[in-house]
């Protein structure tokens, strides 16, 4: 396979008007290497990636209720998700609870995996939307809470998803191409 120049990963993380989080990371993969990618395959690889990149501190686990991101060997769910459903070709996991979710907002938010063919290649997308993190505390978080969330949970989420897309690209191309992070504007909101 010919060497690939570089990989671009598009990112945006914002607090929308209701102070929920919208976070998207995507990359365009060449058609030739991405033919077998599906949203289900992305989910499975992402769950393995979470376990590996956190040195098993966070352990995704399937349960009868869906999927839980559990803390180490405990039964504490950091984020609980309903079973995956397919919507408009994307695999969607709805947030239904967990320690990192505001208790009054447990029925909001979703994690979405999609693979879309475009003229330029295959667009691989990970999107978190309508998520209400416990660290923000309320629909009108203080500056300190926003700052703390930005430099902890938001930074970790971005690092994990960017790293996931980077490693997936490298695995499929067999190349250690340089990676460029580009800012995109998919949704209006306050940058985090």
Protein model, in words:
By secondary structure, the chain is an alpha+beta fold. The chain has helices at residues 31-34, 39-53, 143-173, and strands at 7-15, 21-29, 58-63, 66-71, 77-81, 85-87, 90-97, 110-117, 122-131, 179-183, 190-191. Strands 1, 2, 3, 4, 5, 6, 7, 8, 9, 10 and 11 form an eleven-stranded mixed sheet that branches. It starts with 6 loop residues before the first strand and ends with a strand. The model has no long low-confidence stretch (mean pLDDT 94).
Helix content: 25-40%
Overall outline: globular
Largest sheet: 11 strands, mixed
Distance between the termini: 38 Å
Protein name: DUF1990 domain-containing protein
Summarize the structure.
The protein is an alpha+beta fold. Helices cover 26% and strands 37% of the residues.
Keywords:
alpha+beta, 3 helices, globular
Write the layout of secondary structure elements.
Blueprint: E1 7-15, E2 21-29, H1 31-34, H2 39-53, E3 58-63, E4 66-71, E5 77-81, E6 85-87, E7 90-97, E8 110-117, E9 122-131, H3 143-173, E10 179-183, E11 190-191
Parallel strand pairs: 1-10
Antiparallel strand pairs: 1-2, 1-11, 2-9, 3-4, 4-5, 5-7, 6-7, 7-8, 8-9
Helix pairs in contact: 2-3
Protein name: DUF1990 domain-containing protein
């Amino acid at each position: 396979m010919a060497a690939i120049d570089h990989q671009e990963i598009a990112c945006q993380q914002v607090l929308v008007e209701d102070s929920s989080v919208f976070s998207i990371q995507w990359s365009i993969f060449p058609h030739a290497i991405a033919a077998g990618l599906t949203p289900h395959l992305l989910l499975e690889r992402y769950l393995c990636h979470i376990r590996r990149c956190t040195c098993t501190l966070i352990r995704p686990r399937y349960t009868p209720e869906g999927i839980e991101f559990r803390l180490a060997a405990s039964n504490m769910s950091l984020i609980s998700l309903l079973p995956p459903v397919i919507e408009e070709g994307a695999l969607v996991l709805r947030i239904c609870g967990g320690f990192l979710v505001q208790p009054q907002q447990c029925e909001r938010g979703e994690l979405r995996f999609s693979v879309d063919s475009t003229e330029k290649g295959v667009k691989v997308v990970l999107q978190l939307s309508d998520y209400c993190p416990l660290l923000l505390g309320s629909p009108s978080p203080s500056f300190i809470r926003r700052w703390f969330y930005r430099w902890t949970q938001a930074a970790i989420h971005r690092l994990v998803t960017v790293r996931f897309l980077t490693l997936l690209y490298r695995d499929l191309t067999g190349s250690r191409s340089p990676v460029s992070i580009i800012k995109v504007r998919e949704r209006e909101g306050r940058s985090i």
